[in-house]
Specification:
The protein has 113 residues and is mostly helical. It is rod-shaped and about 145 Å long. It is built from 1 helix and no strands. The termini are far apart. Helix content is 83%, strand content 0%. The protein has a domain of 70 residues. Keywords: Membrane, Transmembrane, Transmembrane helix.
Length: 113
């Protein structure tokens, strides 16, 4: 009977050690899978931030380009306005029939000596 007890305790004791090792290995495997998922999520978050950065950079470049194009058009328009103003002033001076008018363009004759 003592032999049966030794055999049975050896069998069940061995199974408990294997079960303990198996559950410990499964626990390590589950922790590694969870850590892998966390790392994957962090990588995805970084990728999304990089995509957002690239999108905002492209948008900023486009807006800057549009700004300089509009600035150039505005400067050209202001030059045209200034030129038209000078032409209007010149034409007003030519059409003015008042001899004492301050806006009239005075043609200066060279002084004769």
């Amino acid at each position: 009977m003592n032999e049966w007890g030794i055999i049975l305790s050896g069998l069940f004791g061995g199974l408990n050690i294997f079960q303990f090792i198996f559950f410990r290995a499964e626990r390590k495997k589950a922790l590694a899978a969870a850590e892998s998922m966390v790392l994957d999520n962090e990588q995805k978050k970084l990728d999304l931030r990089q995509d957002d950065y690239e999108y905002l950079t492209k948008k900023c470049d486009k807006l800057t380009k549009d700004y300089f194009e509009m600035l150039e058009k505005a400067q050209l328009a202001m030059q045209e306005v200034a030129q038209m103003k000078s032409e209007i002033t010149h034409l007003k001076g030519l059409r003015c029939y008042k001899t004492i008018c301050p806006e009239r363009e005075q043609k200066r004759l060279p002084l004769m000596n």
